[in-house]
Task: structure prediction
Amino acid sequence: MADLRDLYQEVILEHSKQPRNFRELASANRQAEGYNPLCGDHFTVYLNVEGNSIKDIAFQGSGCAISKASASMMTQSLKGKTREEAGKIFHNFHALVTGHRHPNGDQPELGKLAVFSGVHEFPARVKCATLAWHTLNAALEGTQEPVSTE
Result:
């Protein structure tokens, strides 16, 4: 189990140091801002949605290692997905990080996102892990008000 936790920490640190899709998306037709006042995380999520599909997704901002890695891995997981698929992945991810679902290698819908399974042991970090996801939902819904974890 210690080896698995080491691997999880390695993946999270790697995505935090070199986040994927960390840029402003010039072709974005939807975007939203999210804040975590408790620890100062602040992200903007950009989407290019065509029909029912997320054609491209990116983010910018600053935050702790968990929030930045979660945003990075979220963008990789959701690019090319439909809104319904994104909603299902969000639901499963949220259940995982809040401790309402046990990690299982047979969950292809989460894939590498399963590295966040240990977050539920640190309740204050759940908000870090889910900030980008709640911001994504706001962008998909066209919400104009910034998202806050409080």
About this structure: The mean pLDDT is 90. The radius of gyration is 14 Å. The helical segments are 2-17, 65-78, 83-97, 123-141. The first helix runs from residue 2 to 17.
